[in-house]
Amino acid sequence: MKIVINGIHANLRFSSAHMIPCHQFCGGIHGHSYHVDVQVEGERAGEFGFVVDFKKVKESMRVICKKLDHKVLIPLKSDEIKFKNTEDNVEFSIGPKEYSLPREDCYLLPLKSTSAEDLAEYFALKLYNSLNSENNNIKSVQVCVNEGIGQGAYFEKSAE
Question: What is the pLDDT of residues 95-136, one digit of tens each?
Fold first, then answer.
């Protein structure tokens, strides 16, 4: 059995700026109004026979969306970004470009990139771990992070 949550209709959204270092078109700071779609597959269980309660999934996703909302997303593991400081200001360079942004305007992610693909994996792993801490009936979690309507990346985390 699979449950599906449409991010536009369930208000699983965030607006953020990011960059894809050294990319011809996406190398400069730009932003998206993202929405996050979710599918959870598993066996029906518990008192009500749910795969998982929709409310629990939406709450978990909204926590992550809220942290990223109206922030500049910066990948800490990028080979292209050289960090000088991440305390009061986030100071870094990408090639000849120098950046200094207030820390409260940034969200530092333990990722190589802030592409839709890496964000989808980040969301899926967070949700999978959250759900599996309470349920052992979950087979997989699939998350799509959409950079706009009709344009997104899916990642699926399955039980091993």
Answer: 999 999 999 999 999 999 999 999 999 999 999 999 987 777
Residue ranges per domain, the chain? 2-158
Q: Please state, in angstroms and rounded to a whole number, the distance separating the CA atoms of residues 92 and 101.
A: 9
Return the closest-CA partner of residue 2 out of 53, 60, 51, 47: 51
Count other C-beta atoms under 10 Å from residue 92's C-beta: 22
Is the domain covering 2-158 a CATH 1.10.10.10 domain?
Answer: no
Query: What pLDDT digit, counting tens, does each position of 4-52 carry?
Result: 999 999 999 999 999 999 898 898 999 999 999 999 999 999 899 999 9
117/111 Cα distance (integer angstroms): 11
Which amino acid, one-letter code, is at 128? Y
Strands (DSSP E) along the chain, which ranges? 2-5, 13-18, 30-42, 71-75, 81-85, 89-94, 97-102, 106-109, 138-148, 151-158
Active centre residues (catalytic): 26, 70, 147
**Which pair of tokens denotes residue 115?**
């592409």
